[in-house]
Amino acid sequence: MKKQLAAVCIGIIALWSCTNETTSDTCGDGVIDIGEDCDGNELGTFGSCSAYGLYGGAVTCSSNCTIDTSGCGDEGSCGDGLVQFVYGEQCDGANLNGYTCIALGYEGGELGCNSDCTFDRGGCVGETLCGDGLVQEGEECDGDDLAGNTCEALGGY
Length: 157
Description:
Elements: H1 2-17, E1 55-57, E2 60-61, E3 67-68, E4 72-73, E5 108-109, E6 112-113, E7 119-120, E8 124-125
Antiparallel strand pairs: 1-4, 2-3, 5-8, 6-7
């Protein structure tokens, strides 16, 4: 009987200690609740385009509390240090993807990378072999010789 009375007392105390306060699970209250990816300006831990493999722009929160990546760029980002051939990059910053002036057919010199991620051959010296109709080391094509490349093989249609 004492155990039952103790249980009833604990139950009554627990009820008295409860309040009528409730948490708001409303989208738009500025708090990321269960089931919401974001809320207002609160974007959580995935508030950047790069978190979604996208570039530039900004992630926003839609009116239904889901992440909106439509403000992000979906194309490669020249300047991120990664050479992305599918976006036409030959190099990216200091990343020359193993190429040198010699690999491009010059006698020597210092190969660089332009701000648009194309090779800066201004530091290369000597004759280039490009234009002789033969694909040689460092050349992707030469004249009509495309070295077996097709638009599809290079990521095009």
